Amino acid sequence: MKPLLAQLLNLPGIEVEDYHELGDELILEVEAIRDFATCPRCRQESHHLHQNRGHLVRDLNISIFQVLLRVNRRQFKCKTCGKPFSEELDFIGRRRRHTDRFAEMIVKQVIHSDIHNVAKNNDLTDAEVWSMVKYLSKKKWTLDLSDLRRLGIDEITLRKGQSDYVVVLVDLDKNELIGLAPSRKHEDIEEVLKSWGDEVLNQIIEVSIDLSGNYKSLVKKCIQNAEIVADRFHVMKLVNEEFNKVRNREKKAIEKNPNTVEKERLKEAFKQSKYALLKPEESLTEKQKLKLEEIKEVSPILAEMHQQKEAFRNIFETAKDWRDGAVKLLAWMKKAQENFQDSVSTIGRWFGEITNYFDSRTTSGAVEGINNRLKLIKRSGYGFRNFENFRLRCLMCWHLNLSSA
Ligand SMILES: [Zn+2]
Asked: 71 alpha carbon to ligand 1 midpoint, in Å?
């Protein structure tokens, strides 16, 4: 029975000395087969057993049994330095109340769920689950930035309607989250960047940013070899937002129309016209296509702006190289100047960074997906009261190197 239990337990080098069955609990008394241990101070092997020290730890279930191991972590006495020491066991950390593989099983669940549910489903407290997350992050963290060449910087707000931003740093080639800063403050972001070391920062060749103006000087200061590229999707957003502003203005103006019949007709045409106007034309549904025709008919200015918005998007789809893109963009700015005053002025200020895109084709498009995942974590995030916990919980989705996670 004991050899069979040892086989089921499947911890190499460990034997089962005894076992006790208590309802659906199985307690296995285990210890290492080898009869020596290595002194942590002088690295000498000692065969001189000093005393036995049992403690209970939780392990993976065997069949229907919840398994507790009574692990004998033996103390040996070192002949060289004369001091007693406890043996190292590779399946369990010091003072841990769970085996490493049990912690891995729990943390894998956390990646796909949230701390509170995982705790509940496994008869653990939230604090115990957190402690396993922290323990394994220290042990199995692999944030390798040696291949980082293209960096994306973006931000998300975690509470709706709040301006407390978290800054998201992404490896754009691997499409991985590689850092989070607790705010948009330069010193907070700089701290994360500096922690990567000069060697990593010096090899970054491109940084993709939004048009907020918050990151440009910081990137120039900290990442000196990089070309700054204005993210294409943020540029598009700028144009779309101005377009929508005009749509809202026109919609409001309907109320002033003295002709009630005409007023109702216009109202009907504006209803649900937002996405028909803003979405790329080729991805409209049949219903939205009809809506687009309807709104274009009643509003000449929106019809014109729609055409200009599509032309703008087209430049990014079709420009062959930097020169071609720059020429087309300049021509667009001239034509759209009147309708898109704010956008044209911002594009003018960022012309270099925006046209860099036509050479590099770097976008932070992938960041969107990462941001959505972060928001999901936040929403399901029972217990993320502090930023450090949140950061750890997010980064572990990409960098916790668990066996077959
Ligand atoms: Zn020693």
From this structure: 23
3-state helix, strand, coil in the chain (%, to 5): 50, 20, 30
Q: Which tens digits make up the pLDDT trace of 346-365?
A: 999 999 999 999 988 887 77
76 C-alpha vs ligand 1 centroid, how far in Å?
10
Task: Specify the pLDDT at position 360.
Answer: 83
Instruction: Please compute the mean of the pLDDT values over residues 147-160 and round it to a whole number.
Output: 88
Tell me how far the alpha carbon of residue 227 lies from the centroid of ligand 1, in angstroms. Answer: 55
Segment (H or E) for 333:
helix 322-336
CA 85 – ligand 1 centroid, Å = 8
CA distance 288 to 274: 10
Q: Which domains does the chain have, with CATH numbers?
A: 2-97 (no CATH), 150-230+364-388 (3.30.420.10), 233-360 (no CATH)
- Whole-angstrom Cα distance, residue 348 to residue 142? 42
d(CA 18, CA 7): 14
Output the CA 52–ligand 1 centroid distance in Å.
Answer: 18
How far, in Å, is the centroid of ligand 1 from the Cα of 70? Answer: 27
CA dihedral 32, 38, 39, 40 (to 10 degrees): -90
Among candidate residues 49, 8, 45, the one with its CA nearest the CA of residue 30? 8
Report the separation in Å between the CA atom of 49 and the middle of ligand 1, taken as the mean of its atom positions: 13
| Strand blocks (E) in 83-175 | 84-86, 150-157, 165-171
Q: Across the chain, which distance is largest between two alpha carbons, in Å? A: 103
Q: Ligand 1 center to residue 94 CA distance, Å?
A: 19
In the block, tokens 């089962």 appear at 16
Q: What is the pLDDT of residues 159-168, one digit of tens each?
A: 766 667 899 9
The Cα–Cα gap between 24 and 65 comes to 5
Beta strands per DSSP E along 33-134: 37-38, 45-46, 49-51, 54-62, 65-72, 75-77, 84-86
Cα–ligand 1 centroid distance for 47 (angstroms): 12
Q: Judging by beta carbons within 10 Å of its beta carbon (0-12, 13-18, 19+), is residue 314 exposed, middle or buried?
A: middle
78 Cα–ligand 1 center, Å: 5
Contacts of 307 (CB under 8 A, 6+ apart): none
**What does the pLDDT look like over 309-337, one tens digit per residue?**
999 999 999 999 999 999 999 999 999 99
Q: How far is the CA of 69 from the centre of ligand 1 (A)?
A: 28
